[in-house]
C-alpha cells in the first residue's frame, strides 16, 4: 500500500484505519497475505513515485495498492504530472510482476466542475491504459453521503474512525478479486 494520510491513519488511533481493518479482514477470511502500509501523510504522487522502486525491491509484492493524488490536487499540481506519476508507478509495479489497484479520489465542488471531472478522469485513464484495477472513489458513500460532515474530522479532509469500515467496504470487492 502506497498512500497518503487517508491510508496512514491521520488523526486516528493506531490500528483503527481502513488498512489495519483490511489486515483483520484478511485474517478473518483466512487469506494468507501480508500487508505493508507504506503510506505517508501529505505524500503526493511524486513522492510515491520516488519511493516505489525501493519498496518493490524490498518487499517484492504480488499486489500494489496506490492511494495517491489527493494532495496533488490540494496543492494545485498539474493534472498531467499526477497522471504521469500514477502511470509510472503502475507500470513499475506491473514490471515487478505485481497486480495494481488504483484508488481514485475526487475533489470538493469548490474546485470547479471542469477540474473535478478531469481530476477524477485521471484515475480512470491510468487504469484503462495500464489495465490496472480501479476503485473510482475511495470515499464513496462518505464524502458524497448524507452524513458527510459527521464522517470527517474538523479539517473536513480526513475521515473519522467510524468512516473507515465503509472505506474498507468500498475497496474490498475489487481487492478480493485481485487476491483470488
The H/E string reads EHHEHHEHEH
- The rounded distance between the terminal residues' Cα atoms is 18 Å
- Most strands sheet: 4 strands, parallel
Q: Assign an overall shape.
A: globular
CATH architecture: 3-Layer(aba) Sandwich
CATH topology: Rossmann fold
Instruction: Look at the structure and name the CATH superfamily.
Output: SGNH hydrolase
Quick check: average pLDDT? 96
Query: In angstroms, what is the radius of gyration?
Result: 15 Å
**Classification by helices and strands:** alpha/beta
What does this structure look like?
There is one protein chain. This protein is an alpha/beta fold and 180 residues long. The protein has one domain (2-179): SGNH hydrolase (Rossmann fold, 3-Layer(aba) Sandwich). It has six helices and four strands; from the N terminus they run βααβααβαβα. A four-stranded parallel beta sheet has the order 1-2-3-4, with helices on both faces. Strand 3 (99-103), helix 5 and strand 4 (133-135) form a beta-alpha-beta unit. Helix 1 (18-28) packs across helix 6 (164-179) and helix 2 (45-59) runs parallel beside helix 4. The longest helix has 18 residues, at 113-130.
Amino acid at each position: 500500500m502506497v498512500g497518503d494520510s487517508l491510508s496512514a491513519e491521520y488523526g486516528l488511533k493506531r490500528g483503527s484505519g481502513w488498512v489495519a481493518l483490511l489486515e483483520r479482514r484478511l485474517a478473518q477470511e483466512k487469506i494468507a497475505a501480508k500487508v505493508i502500509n507504506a503510506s505517508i501523510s501529505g505524500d503526493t504522487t511524486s513522492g510515491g513515485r520516488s519511493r516505489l522502486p525501493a519498496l518493490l525491491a524490498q518487499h517484492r509484492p504480488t499486489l500494489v495498492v496506490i492511494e495517491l493524488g489527493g494532495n496533488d490536487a490540494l496543492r494545485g499540481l498539474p493534472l498531467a504530472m499526477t497522471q504521469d506519476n500514477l502511470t509510472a508507478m503502475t507500470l513499475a509495479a506491473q514490471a515487478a510482476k505485481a497486480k495494481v489497484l488504483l484508488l481514485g479520489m475526487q475533489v470538493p465542488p469548490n474546485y470547479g466542475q471542469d477540474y473535478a471531472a478531469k481530476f477524477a478522469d485521471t484515475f480512470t485513464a491510468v487504469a484503462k491504459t495500464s489495465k490496472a484495477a480501479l476503485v473510482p472513489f475511495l470515499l464513496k458513500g462518505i464524502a458524497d453521503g448524507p452524513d458527510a460532515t459527521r464522517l470527517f474530522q474538523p479539517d473536513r479532509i480526513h475521515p473519522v474512525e467510524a468512516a473507515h469500515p465503509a472505506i474498507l467496504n468500498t475497496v474490498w470487492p475489487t481487492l478480493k478479486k485481485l487476491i483470488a
